[in-house]
């Protein structure tokens, strides 16, 4: 099952079943066609980090924030190289915004440091989490 959730309104906008012989990658574009997303910010986990899905979101006149992990090795490697290069010199060559937060629940707490770099029309984010 793939669902579209309106965070601010706490409501499901739509959902579609993932076929038994398929996965989320084929279900997400179908869901995007079922709902009105123009002007929205669409966030999807690493499974949805696919060119076809990004193209569909752009075609629907929406923005996106896609997680990048090992399923996109070239993109993952490029983003890691970008942030490692700039972490070494404390972001002296590029403008970034830094956000810090601490979370403590029932288990171990986590400290988050997020770095955001806007390059033209693209925004790259690095999130580092440390347990305490």
Automatic annotation (TrEMBL):
<protein>
    <submittedName>
        <fullName>Transposase DDE domain protein</fullName>
    </submittedName>
</protein>
<dbReference type="InterPro" id="IPR002559">
    <property type="entry name" value="Transposase_11"/>
</dbReference>
<dbReference type="GO" id="GO:0003677">
    <property type="term" value="F:DNA binding"/>
</dbReference>
<feature type="domain" description="Transposase IS4-like">
    <location>
        <begin position="2"/>
        <end position="83"/>
    </location>
</feature>
<dbReference type="GO" id="GO:0006313">
    <property type="term" value="P:DNA transposition"/>
</dbReference>
<dbReference type="InterPro" id="IPR047647">
    <property type="entry name" value="ISAs1_transpos"/>
</dbReference>
<dbReference type="Pfam" id="PF01609">
    <property type="entry name" value="DDE_Tnp_1"/>
</dbReference>
<dbReference type="GO" id="GO:0004803">
    <property type="term" value="F:transposase activity"/>
</dbReference>
<dbReference type="InterPro" id="IPR051698">
    <property type="entry name" value="Transposase_11-like"/>
</dbReference>
